């Protein structure tokens, strides 16, 4: 994700480069062995939120998720997890299943169950994370949509999009 747009980028590359913020917010890790996942910086906790930890006791000698896994029993080291994280996050971590085989960690799209990115899931993520949508109710949105005169007043559009000007 640390790249520049370049001097003469293609339209496709400019589009991908502009969407990297969306990708950074929605990408997370599926825990396998835990050797590739940084505990403190990466999104790896399943469920609501950004997937990153809220630390209770930051311990620098724990840096990888693999430090929280007992490799012999393929289970979480519960005493360490409960010591390092809030109760809510510790419970979420301890509920995450671990593979008994030595599977590798993999990057996934956290915004749908399949873990695969699609334009539809990216769009839904943007819509659902829009602060403007959280601040207004559906009723207010519906009234605002009705305030435009025909021929465009009957069309539904996302609040972030500007309606056509009346000069047309």
Automatic annotation (TrEMBL):
Give positions of region: Disordered: 134-168
Question: In its UniProt entry, what is this protein called?
Answer: Reverse transcriptase-like protein
Residue stretches of biased makeup (Basic residues): 155-168
């Amino acid at each position: 994700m640390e790249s520049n747009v370049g001097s003469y980028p293609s339209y496709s590359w400019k589009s991908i480069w502009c969407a990297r913020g969306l990708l950074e917010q929605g990408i997370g890790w599926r825990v396998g062995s835990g050797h590739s996942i940084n505990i403190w910086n990466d999104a790896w906790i399943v469920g609501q939120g950004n997937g990153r930890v809220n630390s209770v006791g930051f311990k620098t000698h724990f840096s990888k998720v693999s430090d929280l896994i007992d490799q012999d029993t393929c289970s979480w080291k519960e005493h360490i997890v409960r010591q390092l994280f809030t109760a809510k996050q510790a419970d979420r971590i301890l509920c995450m299943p671990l593979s008994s085989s030595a599977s590798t960690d993999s990057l996934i799209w956290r915004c749908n169950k399949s873990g695969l990115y699609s334009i539809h899931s990216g769009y839904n993520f943007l819509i659902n994370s829009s602060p403007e949508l959280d601040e207004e109710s559906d009723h207010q949105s519906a009234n605002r949509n009705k305030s435009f005169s025909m021929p465009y007043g009957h069309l539904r559009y996302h609040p972030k999009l500007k309606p056509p000007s009346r000069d047309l």
